[in-house]
Amino acid sequence: MNKKRPVNLDLTTIKLPLPAVSSILHRVTGVGLFLGLVFMMYAFDVSLESEQGFNDISAILRDSFFAKLIAWGLLAALFYHCAAGIKHLLQDFGYAEELESGTLAAKVTLGAGVVLALIAGIWIW
Questions:
Q1: Rounded to 10 degrees, what is the CA torsion of 86, 89, 94, 96?
Q2: TM segments (predicted)?
Q3: Angle CA 105–107–111, to nearest 5
Q4: Cβ distance 40 to 78 under 8 Å?
Q5: DSSP secondary-structure letter at 5?
Q6: Cα radius of gyration (the chain)
Q7: How confident is the model at residue 72 (pLDDT cuts 50, 70, 90)?
Q8: From CA 117, how far away is CA 18, in angstroms rounded?
C-alpha cells in the first residue's frame, strides 16, 4: 500500500456526483423520519387518549405555523425517502447502474421529491 498518497482533508473542495448526493439525502431523510417518528407517535398517543386530546392536537396542527412546518418537513422527507427507495430497489435489480443512467435516475428522484414536497406543502397549508 502506498503511504505517500495525497490526502485531501478539505471537505469543501470535494465535488460529489449527483447519485452520491441523492444516496446521502436518502440516508439523511431516513434518520429525520426516525427522529420525527417520536413526535408523531406522541401526538398520536395524545389524540387517542380522549376526545379533548384529539381536539388539542388537531387545533395545534391547524393553527400553529411551527407544527405545520414540522408536518410538512416530515411529509417531504417521507416522499423523498420513498422515491429514493424505489430508485435504490431498481438499482438492486440492475437498472440505472451506469454513470449516465444513474445520474438521470438521481435527477428524476430529486425532481420527484421536490414536486411531492410542493404538493405536501399545498395540502398542509
A1: 30
A2: 24-44, 64-83, 104-124
A3: 115
A4: no
A5: -
A6: 20
A7: very high
A8: 19
What percent of the chain lies above the pLDDT cut of 70?
98
Rounded (5°) CA angle 66-67-68: 90
The C-alpha cell 420525527 sits at: 36
Termini Cα distance of the chain: 57
User: Residue 99 is which amino acid?
Assistant: L
pLDDT in tens, 91-123: 999 999 999 999 999 999 999 999 999 999 999
**Dihedral over Cα of 95, 101, 103, 105: its sign:** negative
Residues in Cβ contact with 112 at an 8 Å cutoff, skipping those fewer than 6 apart = 79, 80, 83
The burial class, CB within 10 Å (0-12 / 13-18 / 19+), for 101 is middle
